Amino acid sequence: MIYSVIFGVIGLIFALVLTPWVIRLGECGVGLDRPDSYRKAHREPVSRLGGAPVFAVFLLSAVAVFLLRPVEWLRWIPVVVTVGLMFGLGLWDDLRPLGAKLKLFCQILIAILAFCMGLKIGSVSYGGGFNIELGALGFFVTIFWLISVPNIVNLIDGVDGLAAGLGLMLFCILGYVGWRMGQTDVAWVCFGLAGVLLGFLCFNFPPAKIFLGDGGAYLIGSAVACLSLISAHKGTVAAVMLVMVVALGLPIMDTLFALIRRAFRGFPLFHADAEHIHHRLRRLGLSERRIVLGLYLVSVVFSLVALSLIWSQGRTLPIALAILFLITVLMVRYLGYIWSWAGLAGQIRISIERRSEVKYALLQASLMELEVERCRDLAEFRNLMAMALQRVGFVVDGPVDPERYLNVTLYFAGEESLVLQAPNKIRDQDHWRRLAECFRRPYLKALKHWRS
After folding, report:
1. What are phi and psi of 421, to 5 degrees?
2. Distance (Å, rounded) from C-alpha 209 to C-alpha 167?
3. 330 and 431 part of one domain
4. Residue 416: is its pLDDT beyond 70?
5. Does one domain contain both 29 and 140?
6. Do residues 330 and 434 share a domain?
7. Per-residue pLDDT tens digits for 280-298
8. Which of 22, 303, 327 minimizes the C-alpha distance to 171?
9. Is the pTM of this model over 0.85?
10. 39 and 136 share one domain
C-alpha cells in the first residue's frame, strides 16, 4: 500500500507543478475555450488543455510499473496505447474541433485496435457460480464498453471541477478494488491518477482557471474502462464492471436523460443542448460551487453503493438498485424533466407533436450551411438567414409586444449576438431556444467564412 501512497503523492506534485505551466500556454492563445454559447457559464476564454498533466502522470505511472513489475509489462501495452490514442483524439478536438460523427468513428477504430491487442471481454463471470461465455458477442461488448465510458464522462464535463472530481472518486474505487484483488500495479496507476486529479482540482474547482477539455475527459473515461478490465480476475469480470457502472451512475443517468429527450423531440442524438443535469441546476439559481458540491455528494452516494457490492460480495445488489431508482425518480422530477407525473402523457404528446417543427428547423439550418458557399457576402447571408428564421416562426429584429412575444438571443464569440422574438406561450421558451440553437452552426460558419 505504501507504493500506492507514493504514486498518489507524486501525481499530486506533478499536477501542482505542470498545471500552471499549461495555463500559461493557454494565455498565449493555444487551446482556449471561448464563451460562445449560452450553454457555457464562463465569460472569459479558459484553457482546455488540462488533460496534458493528467496524461503525463499516467505515462509516468505506466513507466514506473514497467520498471517495478517488468513481468506485467505485456498487459499494460494495450492500456497505454488505447488511453494515449483516446487522449490524442480529444486533444485534437480541443485544438481543432472535429465533428461528432468523425470522433465516434475514430473511437470505434481505437476500440477495435484495443480488442485486437488483447484488451477484451471474453466472458462475464462472478465468483465460481456464474459464468457466461460471450463468444463473438464479446467483440461488441468490448467495443461498447471502451467507447461508452469515455463519452459519458465527457458528456458530464460541463461544470467546473465535476469530471475531475468524478474521476478522482472512480480511480480511488478502482485503486481499492485492484489492491483488494491483489492487482497492485493497477492500484499504483489508479492512485497516481487520483493524485494528479486532486492537484488539478486546485485549478479546476469553480471558478476554473483551466478545463479538462475533451482530451482530459476521454483520458479519464478510457483509463477507467481499460483499468476496470485488467483489474479483474477471470472470475470477477462481472463484479468489477458492475461496480464501475454503479459508480458511474451520475453520468450514465445524465446520458440516458439526454438520449431520451432528444429521441422524443426529434433532435439528432449528437445534438448539443443546455438541458443536462448541471444546466438544470443552474437554472434553479444554484452557484457553480453549489452545483459541483451537490453533484459530488450524489457521486459519493453512488460510490458507496458501488463499494457495498464489493464488501458484501453482491448481496446488497437489490438495495443498490432501489437506491439508484429512487435517486433517478427524484432527479427527474426535481430538475423539471417531467412537469408533473399526472401530466406526463400530455408532455410526451406535446414533444411528439413538435417533432415536425424540429425537423423543419433542422432542414432550414442545413440549407443555410449550403448558402454560406453560395452567398456573395455576409449581408446577403443574413438576409437569407432572416427569411429562414421567419419560416420557422421567429420574428427577426422587429418591434413586438413583450407580453405576446419573448426574446431569444444567440450569443457568439466576442460581441456578436443574434436577437430573435418568438410567440410567448406557457413552457414554450425552452422550445424556441432549442429551435434557435439549430441555426448556431450555419451562422458560426458564415462568421468564420467572411471574417477570417
Report:
1. -125, 145
2. 18
3. no
4. no
5. yes
6. no
7. 888 888 888 899 999 999 9
8. 303
9. no
10. yes
